[in-house]
Amino acid sequence: MTIAASSPPPPPTLYSLTTFLSLLATILILLTAYLASTTLLPKATSTKLRVLYIWHLFDALIHLTLESSFLYNAFFSYTLLAPTSQYPNPAALIAPTPAYVHFLGYKDRLYGSDYGGNPFALLWQEYARADKRWGGADLGIVSLELLTVGIGGPLALYIAECVRKGAGGAGGKASAKMWFWASVLATGELYGGFMTFAPEWLSGSPNLDTSNFMYTWLYLFFFNALWVWLPVWVLYEAYGNISTAFTMAEVKEKGKKKN
Fold this sequence. Notes:
- The protein has about 260 residues and is mostly helical.
- Helices cover about 65% and strands about 5% of the residues.
- It contains six helices and three strands; from the N terminus they run E-H-H-E-E-H-H-H-H.
- It has helices at about 15-40, 45-75, 120-125, 140-165, 170-200, 215-259; strands spanning about 1-5, 80, 110.
- It has a three-stranded mixed sheet.
- The protein is elongated, with a radius of gyration of 22 Å.
- It starts with a strand and ends with a helix.
């Protein structure tokens, strides 16, 4: 907790140690998911199942580590506003919430990673240079992240385990669970992505900084597009596998009737 009367200091230079460490953290999480696939999946596992496993384990780790740290800072990192006779407090106008809406009901506080000093707060301060909502306690973002961390993360971990069991010869039951829950999660990921950016598109993107290549194409486009491309691919594969399963079941049922 700090006490301040003005907005956080201006962002550092475009490339910094925090920039490097933030990108390194993401790469290490992906590497962890890949190494887990080489250890826990049989060598004969198909490329499709291996990619599904890596994606869902990576997805789970991102949600349960990095995004959970966003929620921690949104709820526990804050700055106190200097007392004033004006209402609303002029300093509160820098918060990514309407002037008369106060996160958790505290009128004298501003919450978010911008006001934290822990390593994860610094990581989110870095990303907030491209989308400043992630530096505060934007109500829409926090609401989505509660679902993502509380449901999406554990569900992605469960799907990865279903992939492992299916690849290990557990049979059709594990595959059925995998494709069903993978479809549910992929739909949720796509909805979450839309609800993250639709308010910005509808209001002229006041919180987005697209002034340079790194913010636009790495932070905003690439890192968010991953949660579009991969879920769309998962839904495509799920549709094909579920359709095939129903077709085979129908053929089997017709065969029984003939006999």
